[in-house]
Design goal:
With 220 residues, chain A is an alpha/beta fold. Chain A has 7 helices and 10 strands. The longest helix of chain A is centred in the C-terminal third of the chain and has 16 residues. Classes of the chains: A alpha/beta (220), B alpha+beta (291). The complex binds adenosine-5'-triphosphate and magnesium ion (MG).
């Protein structure tokens, strides 16, 4: 589903990723871990095309990224649900509209959209905050809204960047359970985290990044 | 479908950013009102100048003692030219009679002349659109070649002044409309540009979530169109009230105003013109979207 071959990415004079090669199959749930600044976010950005690689080949689902036409970019992105590290919620929309945006962009009609948004808010336990605005939510609640928006469209790929960075261990365990459920229904999931507790005893693959190098792989 | 949602986004933006939107609506209204007033003036002057070519004619003075056949030949040749509307033969006797009626009480000045010194003549009226210096020059050069024509005369000054008045008015009108339209497009352009920048963070999120260019553009284009349309409606209300309160009333006291013609149907295009200008401004402001 996701293939990297000798991929490098440099920012100005900073190397964020160096000759990275790995593959994630359809239906897998994989973690990527490493210290702050090791390149986790950059790796995810290359997948949803927020950044372009300087070297190497990337393919996502049926697309070769370096051969992708500009007009196909939104199509590719609609296959992916992203939980951004900085959430990217719209501050002037309430929780409902923030989550609904993912469906409106995909042209889902308003009636169907309503049930799907509420279903997805129920999964992250925020059904009762549908009318609140982001600034009235705690950091952890905002993070869960971001998760609800990423999963509401039933994407084939979910990329979650530090999805439990702002929540307590119990909530964190709940979020991982949610991802497992969604994964069990067929979605391919890639979670970036520096929290070892998150993948301990999951039995899933864990990719280890160290200063932009892929230094190893283990089973959590 | 994304379309009704685009309308909701546009409506939302208009309400949230009401001051900047109101300002551009009023500017557009004022601009279109100016255009309407100019168009009204140009139209009225145009109607007046359209009647002037009627008064223009070319006189052909003929050689003495032409035979009936020769005369007929001349008249037919003149008539054949497709810039000619009407041809009228005036015999020397008729010309004299006319001269006498013009002179009225002072006609005794002609008494000493004895024999009628006036030549026979042909008055040629041209089609309205042919009344321009170039066409007339070409026509007279051709008529001068006809055998039996002695001399040709026409009001050269009169001709060039109607012509330049007409061309001048049209040019001023067109230039003015173009400048004002460009100005209004610029107003919509700046407004949408400002809104677009203000929402750049939001638009970036749209893109990352997979929005198409159309999804991003549509609300702004609708917003521009709505601003322009409302501005156009206001200018329509403006020109109608101006007409009914000012011109209609004044024409009771000042007869000159009675001659002003108001082509209502032109004003009905004002909201459409506004809509078009607003949309154009918005499209230019959004420009190319890159992912
Ligand atoms: N836009 C950018 N411009 C310049 N340098 C950047 C940019 N984004 C990231 N970097 C650099 O690239 C390296 C990798 O950054 P990245 O955000 O991928 O790390 P990360 O593993 O996600 O860190 P964290 O755990 O803190 O989120 C860092 O050294 C960072 O400073
Ligand atoms: Mg990061």
């Amino acid at each position: 589903m996701i293939h990297f071959h000798d991929v490098s990415k440099h920012y100005d004079n900073q190397t964020a990723l160096r000759k990275i090669t790995f593959s994630i199959d359809k239906g897998e749930m994989v973690f990527v871990t490493g210290l702050s600044g090791s390149g986790k976010t950059t790796l995810l950005k290359l997948i949803y095309l927020a950044e372009k690689p300087d070297e190497g080949n990337i393919s996502v689902a049926e697309w070769e990224i370096d051969k992708l036409e500009e007009s196909s970019i939104p199509l590719l992105r609609r296959h992916i649900g992203v939980v951004f590290q900085d959430f990217r919620l719209l501050n002037n929309r309430n929780v409902f509209d923030n989550v609904a945006l993912a469906l409106r962009i995909r042209g889902v009609n308003e009636k169907e959209l309503k049930t799907r948004v509420f279903d997805s808010l129920k999964i992250v336990n925020l059904r009762h905050r549908a009318d609140s605005y982001p600034h009235a939510l705690s950091g952890g609640e905002q993070q869960r809204v971001a998760i609800a928006r990423a999963i509401v469209s039933d994407p084939t790929i979910i990329l979650a960047d530090e999805p439990t960075g702002n929540v307590d261990p119990d909530t964190s365990a709940g979020i991982i359970r949610t991802f497992k459920d969604i994964n069990a229904r067929g979605a391919t999931i890639l979670i970036a985290t520096h929290d070892r507790a998150l993948f301990k005893n999951t039995g899933r693959r864990v990719l280890r990044l160290d200063s932009g190098n892929l230094t190893g792989e283990e089973i959590g | 479908m994304a379309f009704p949602y685009a309308f909701r986004l546009a409506a939302r933006s208009i309400l949230y950013e009401k001051w900047i939107n109101l300002l551009s609506i009023l500017t557009i209204a004022a601009g279109l009102l100016f255009i309407a007033i100019t168009a009204l003036s140009v139209y009225n002057i145009d109607v007046t100048t359209k009647r002037l070519p009627e008064k223009f004619s070319v006189m052909l003075y003929l050689r003495d003692n032409l035979s009936g056949k020769e005369l007929e030949n001349i008249i037919n040749t003149v008539r054949k030219d497709d810039t000619v509307k009407r041809v009228k033969y005036i015999s020397r006797d008729e010309a004299m009679k006319e001269l006498k009626t013009t002179l009225k009480d002072t006609k005794y000045v002609l008494d000493g002349l004895g024999e009628n010194p006036l030549p026979d003549s042909i008055e040629v009226k041209l089609k309205d659109e042919a009344v321009s210096p170039d066409t007339v020059k070409r026509l007279t050069a051709k008529l001068r070649e006809i055998k039996g024509v002695d001399e040709i005369e026409y009001g050269e000054k009169f001709l060039s002044s109607i012509y330049s008045l007409k061309v001048g008015m049209n040019t001023i009108g067109i230039v003015f409309v173009i400048i004002m339209s460009a100005g209004m497009i610029f107003v919509c352009y700046s407004t949408v540009k400002i809104l677009f920048y203000r929402k750049s963070e939001e638009i970036e999120t749209y893109k990352l979530l997979g929005a198409t260019k159309g999804f991003i553009r549509a609300p702004f284009i609708i917003e521009g169109a709505v601003m322009g349309f409302i501005g156009g409606l206001l200018s329509l209300i403006g020109i109608l009230s101006l007409y009914y309160t000012v011109i209609f009333r004044l024409s009771y006291t000042i007869p000159l105003f009675k001659t002003i013609i108001f082509p209502i149907n032109i004003s009905l295009y004002l909201p459409l013109a506004g809509l078009f200008l607003g949309m154009t401004g918005a499209v230019i402001a959004i420009g190319r979207i890159r992912y």
